[in-house]
Amino acid sequence: MFIEFTVPECDFTDRKYDTPVEGAGALARGASGRWCVVMYAGPEYIAENDIEVITAEAAEAYLAEYYPSDRCDF
Fold first, then answer.
1. pLDDT 10s digits, 16-72
2. Strand order from edge to edge, sheet including 15-29
3. What global pTM score does this model have?
4. Which residues partner with 56 through β-bridges?
5. How many CA atoms lie within 13 A of 38 on its CB side?
6. What residues does each domain of the chain span?
């Protein structure tokens, strides 16, 4: 799952930006049930790979419904 996020770099392409850009944060669930951003995606990577990016609020709602005992740290 990718959420709207301002990113300083794209971890998928190794591109570094002069100033942070509007991209996405890739979420992952840790062993403790905590969801957090683990990788940054730049706008060109998102466009080239047709990635759906949702708001943090939409991600929190989804996680609350399907993983009610988990925690969001984003």
1. 999 999 999 999 999 999 999 999 999 999 999 999 999 999 999 999 999 999 999
2. 53-54, 2-10, 15-29, 34-41, 71-72
3. 0.92
4. none
5. 9
6. 2-72
